[in-house]
Design a protein that fits this description.
Strand order of the largest sheet of chain A: 2-1-3-4-5
Oligomer: heterodimer
CATH architecture of chain A: 3-Layer(aba) Sandwich
Order of helices and strands of chain A: EHEHEHEHEH
Shape of chain B: globular
Mean pLDDT of chain A: 92
Low-confidence stretches of chain A: none
Distance between the termini of chain A: 18 Å
Largest interface: A-B, 25 and 23 residues
Low-confidence stretches of chain B: none
CATH class of chain A: Alpha Beta
Structural class of chain A: alpha/beta
Strand order of the largest sheet of chain B: 4-2-5-1-6-7-8
CATH topology of chain A: Rossmann fold
Number of helices of chain B: 12
Number of domains of chain B: 1
CATH topology of chain B: Rossmann fold
CATH class of chain B: Alpha Beta
Number of strands of chain A: 5
Shape of chain A: globular
CATH architecture of chain B: 3-Layer(aba) Sandwich
CATH superfamily of chain B: P-loop containing nucleotide triphosphate hydrolases
Radius of gyration of chain A: 13 Å
Order of helices and strands of chain B: HEHEEHEHEHEHHEHEHHHH
Helix content of chain B: 40-55%
Largest sheet of chain B: 7 strands, parallel
């Protein structure tokens, strides 16, 4: 039996706009994944604890507040420390391209900007999780 | 699927002997009744009493895509941030027997980990969900004035399974009337081994009725723990789980036979052509019954 892909979708930080996160969550669900949606105002500690309890394959963060350079690395640091370095960290929001490059060079997965086709996100997550499971 | 089921059973070999320490509570009710919010308040009340808690929260899997949006953590952010609480979200996955087997295995694990209380939250729709809720020692049914009158709850099969009834969102109009209807319906029903299910008004937002709900769970626990009722309940639940597992595997083995699948195709063609009856096409697939006695 093929294991379902489990994605934790979270919004760290203070901004209260979760429309983007909801659109992505719905698209992942429609693609046959199990999406654990945790809601607004999550700290990196809460996100990582939830990802561990939920045995998530993927943590997807939506950040519109400009705090991406602290939140993505912090989530990665905590996941690594918990022995869950195999969890894919991805996400999107208003993130300048050079920041995306810096984060991706630091071990974060692909990040997606506004206007991304959700099919692209689905395809990326599916391929990346399959590759990681195959390892 | 079969391999997954066998792997799960093998894990349960090690886990089940370590279970029995946790009190298992099922929480069910219609969509939008505020189950998650109320459960969080109950969980935090137990944390206030120094108890550790595990939660298995089940949301429906889409029968069309197999995907699921599991949103119970949204309403349980405070409990989720508490180190003494472990929450696991589950998709109902839509497979026959799959929900029960999978969810009950998660409850076993939380129990074996040493949680004092283990909650399972399911939508109160469909037999599978009701089975899961009922496999708990204490079943709590959550209703709201908006979910309709007591008749609706009866139709959904909720009146029979509840050990405790919570009328949530009790600040809304109609809460008093719903409480009276529930009480009247419960008066009519048979008393269950000396337990009369209490009806309690709650409001998760205002924190009303939470202590009463916890006390009701504790009273029911004391009631069941007396004179061997609990061991009888555990025996019944395990029996049902074994039967479900056997049913599922027997079904898979049955349909794996290519010769049988070919006979099905053959029978179907004849049935459509009108040369075979429905009962005959069913019988053609089944083994001969030796004595004709049905178990």
């Amino acid at each position: 039996m093929d294991r379902k892909i489990r994605v934790l979708v979270a919004k760290p930080g203070l901004d209260g706009h979760d429309r983007g996160a909801r659109v992505v969550a719905a698209a992942l669900k429609d693609a046959g994944m199990e999406v654990i949606y945790t809601g607004l105002h999550q700290t990196p500690e809460m996100i990582v604890e939830a990802a561990l309890q939920e045995d998530a394959d993927v943590v997807a963060l939506s950040i519109l507040s400009g705090s991406h350079m602290s939140h993505f690395p912090r989530v990665k640091e905590l996941l690594d420390a918990a022995g869950a370095a195999d969890v894919l960290i991805t996400g999107g929001g208003i993130i300048p391209e050079e920041d995306m490059k810096t984060l991706e060079a630091g071990g974060i997965g692909r990040l997606f900007g506004p206007g991304t086709d959700t099919r692209e996100v689905v395809k990326y997550i599916r391929e990346e999780v399959e590759a990681r499971r195959g390892r | 699927m079969e391999n997954a089921a066998q792997a799960r059973s093998a894990i349960l070999d090690a886990v089940i002997p370590r279970t029995g320490g946790a009190w298992r509570v099922g929480l069910t009710g219609p969509p939008g009744a505020g189950k998650s919010s109320l459960l969080e308040e109950i969980v935090l009340a137990y944390r206030g009493r120094g108890k550790t808690v595990g939660v298995a929260a089940v949301d429906p899997t889409s029968p069309f895509t197999g995907g699921a949006l599991l949103g119970d953590r949204i309403r349980m952010a405070r409990a989720g941030a508490d180190a003494g609480v472990f929450i696991r979200s589950l998709g109902s996955r839509g497979s026959r027997g799959g929900l029960s087997a999978q969810t009950e295995a998660v409850l076993d694990l939380l129990d074996a980990f040493g949680k004092d209380l283990v909650f399972v939250e399911t939508l109160g729709v469909g037999q599978m969900e009701l089975d899961v809720a009922e496999s708990a020692y204490t079943t709590v049914v959550v209703l709201v004035p908006e979910s309709g009158d007591g008749i609706q709850a009866m139709k959904a099969g909720l009146m029979e399974i509840g050990d405790i009834f919570l009328v949530n969102k009790c600040d809304h109009e109609g809460a008093g009337a719903l409480e009276m209807e529930l009480r009247a319906a419960l008066e009519l029903g048979a008393e269950r081994e000396g337990w009369r299910p209490p009806v309690i008004q709650t409001s998760a937002i205002e924190g009303r009725g939470i202590e009463e709900a916890v006390e009701a769970i504790e009273s029911h626990r004391a009631h069941l723990s007396a004179d061997g009722r609990l061991s009888e309940l555990r025996r019944r639940v395990l029996e049902r789980r074994i039967r479900a597992e056997v049913d599922e595997r027997a079904r898979q083995v049955f349909w794996r036979d290519p010769e049988r699948r070919a006979r099905l195709e053959e029978g179907l063609a004849k049935l459509l052509a009108g040369s075979l009856g429905f009962e005959e096409s069913v019988r053609a697939l089944l083994p001969e019954e030796p004595g004709g006695e049905d178990s």
